[in-house]
Specification:
Number of strands: 6
Radius of gyration: 27 Å
Strand content: under 5%
Structural class: mainly alpha
Number of domains: 3
Distance between the termini: 74 Å
Number of helices: 28
Helix content: 55-70%
Largest sheet: 4 strands, mixed
Strand order of the largest sheet: 3-4-6-5
Shape: globular
Oligomer: single chain
């Protein structure tokens, strides 16, 4: 296959370049090209099902949709499943359109609706599906490049399940000191306190937050696979370009951070193709590849436009880290990133990369050159987050954490791409050099696998096997013992109120069990997690802002109105609040009774009637008069 073959139907390029590329792509005699027989397809599906079931079995030991930010993810999942239009009304802010990435949650809710599954089950099934998809896609890409099933297996498991050398060292140090092992949570927070976040897929699959970055992981891997196909493409392939556009547009709606990284890789692919063409003298063909780039990007943003036109971006642009650190006197506050963290995160990848490059014939092949692009982009990310950061709410509200999101989101991509590049590259070296290099490769792989295995062993023991609850995949079952009235009311709403409506409940802050009714039903409450709503709608200088107003006042005013609704003795005041937010139901449970010390419940009987009760939990339907 020649990179120099005509892209738009014009003549071939000079023979010297063609010979170089053709030689680099000559199939190795000791390997076989993928054979897509029905037997192989069935085998892969069976493997995916096995991985899916293994993950769900582990998940059944701790399936609670409670703690961390799982409430937020569950609210998006249940709301997207019940809405009839987009952007839908925010479950936690009555009357306001949702202002967060919800397309990934919608895809999962769509599967849930087709299967007629409760969302509390779908949540955990979705985690299992993403885990299985990511494992297969990572393994498939590594195999496509290296033609090694062994390295495809190890690489796919490493990407989804392995931890860092930093965490392994933490466990070793604690063991030597005879103190308790490091918490699995320290995998993503390397220091205490930690002002940077270094999350990787293994932690995501453990903690079980169904966040946008996790929902996007299979699509990101699929994007890498099709960019690899574009890298090898010898001519214009409309089907390939169409798939790329759909993939990039989809991932841009699921998690825009992923779109940035994939776009950078697309630019590298097209730039290298065009550069080689220009060096050989075919400027017109190089121009055609640049046209391809423009068309793909233009069509991608056209595809995304309906889903983003109403989105209020809380990002304030790009900041220069050294200047920010100087202004806020943050030198030494984990900036620059301590060397121990850099080595603990990326050291082994870099070591393997250096060894791969030392094997000249391996990296000069087209497959190897693609791996170098992945490595170059990953190193660019690692260096880039030291120099630049995305200016968001952290840089204003809590400057110490000014680059937490930046290191988190882009570091996630670096880990993914370096894993692919490392295992595919080492697989190529073994296939190319046989016995001469095999022992060195297996030493490197052994170090990777042993250090990476420390985290899943600790996470399984601490997160999954540390409790005594019965096995279940229903993420709402934790309420059966802690708040059975809430669970019963949620069940009633899900069975009897299909249309989304506004239900008042107590307002609380993030990382609590407030907003549990709207979270588990997909219904709307006037105000949910206050800090999250403020974060999603944050603006440094709002129109007409006074004293640096960033949007918190509007959020707190709603919370104040709901407090007044529960505590006021005035029927007139209650009616005004009910009318203001379009409230059709009012819920009174234990949280409401504990939150609002001056709760006046009698007025709700005058404003409507009880439609459901369970213990001390009451759901009032407000009369339409």
């Amino acid at each position: 296959m020649s990179l120099r073959a005509p892209l738009w139907g014009r003549g071939n390029l000079n023979s010297s370049f063609n010979s170089e590329i053709a030689a680099s792509q000559t199939p190795r005699n000791d390997t076989k090209r993928p054979s897509w027989s029905w037997k192989n397809i069935f085998g892969l599906e069976l493997l995916g099902l096995l991985v899916y079931l293994i993950y769900l079995y582990l998940r059944s030991h701790n399936a609670e949709i409670n703690g961390t930010e799982r409430f937020m993810d569950m609210a998006l999942l249940s709301a997207t499943g019940k809405t009839n239009y987009f952007p839908f009304v925010d479950s936690w802010y009555a009357g306001k359109p949702v202002n967060y990435y919800y397309f990934g949650a919608y895809l999962m809710s769509l599967l849930s609706n087709l299967a007629r599954l409760p969302y509390a089950l779908t949540y955990n099934f979705s985690l299992g599906l993403i885990y299985a998809q990511a494992t297969l896609l990572a393994g498939g890409l590594i195999y496509a490049i290296s033609k090694s099933k062994v390295f495809a297996f190890f690489g796919s498991v490493f990407l989804t399940s392995a931890g860092t050398v930093f965490f392994a060292n933490c466990v070793l140090q604690n063991w030597l000191k005879n103190i308790p092992a490091c918490s699995y949570a320290s995998s993503t927070r390397l220091f205490s306190p930690s002002y940077i976040i270094n999350e990787i897929p293994s932690y995501s699959f453990t903690v079980g937050d169904l966040h946008a970055h996790l929902l996007a992981l299979p699509v990101f891997l699929l994007g890498l696979s099709f960019l690899y196909a574009l890298w090898l493409s010898e001519k214009r392939q409309l089907s390939l370009l169409f798939v790329l556009i759909v993939l990039l547009g989809s991932i841009g709606l699921i998690n825009p951070w992923d779109l940035i990284t994939l776009t950078c890789l697309l630019l590298l692919v097209i730039f290298c193709k065009s550069l080689w063409l220009m060096r050989s003298g075919d400027w017109s063909l190089a121009r055609d590849w640049l046209v391809v780039l423009f068309l793909v990007m233009f069509c991608t943003f056209v595809l995304m436009w309906p889903g983003t036109r109403s989105f209020q971006n809380p990002v304030m642009g790009l900041g220069f880290a050294p200047s920010f650190v100087k202004v806020h006197k943050l030198l030494g506050s984990q900036w620059p990133t301590p060397l121990t963290a850099e080595v603990g995160m990326w050291g082994l990848f870099i070591l393997c990369g250096v060894y791969f490059v030392s094997k000249h014939t391996a990296w000069r092949k087209m497959e190897g050159r693609f791996l170098l692009l992945l490595a170059m982009l990953s190193l660019g990310i690692i260096v880039g987050v030291e120099l630049f950061f995305v200016r968001d709410i952290y840089s204003v509200a809590n400057p110490m954490y000014f680059r937490a999101n930046t290191t988190f989101k882009f570091g996630y991509h670096a880990w993914t791409m370096l894993t692919i590049a490392t295992f595919a590259g080492l697989g190529m070296v073994v296939s190319e050099y046989k016995k001469q290099a095999r022992w060195i490769v297996w030493v490197l792989v052994g170090i990777l696998l042993v250090s990476g295995a420390v985290y899943p062993v600790a996470a399984i023991r601490q997160f999954y096997l540390g409790g005594t609850s019965k096995l279940t995949l229903d993420g709402s079952m934790w309420m059966r013992t802690t708040s059975p009235g809430d669970l019963a009311t949620i069940g009633y709403i899900n069975e009897n109120i299909s249309k989304r409506t506004v239900i008042a409940e107590a307002v609380g802050d993030s990382y609590t069990t407030f907003s549990r009714v709207s979270t588990y039903t997909g219904q709307i409450t006037p105000m949910g997690w206050q800090t999250h709503e403020w974060t999603w709608r944050f603006h440094p200088v709002m129109p007409g802002a006074v004293n640096g107003e960033t949007g918190w006042t509007a959020v707190s005013l709603v919370a104040g109105d709901i407090k007044a609704l529960y505590e006021t003795e005035s029927i007139g005041t209650a009616k005004q609040i009910i009318s203001k937010y379009g409230i059709q139901y009012v819920y009174v449970g234990m949280l409401e009774r504990n939150k609002y010390a001056g709760l006046n419940e009698a007025k709700f009987a005058n404003l409507g009637r009880v439609v459901f009760s369970s213990g001390e939990s009451l759901l009032y339907k407000i009369d339409d008069k």
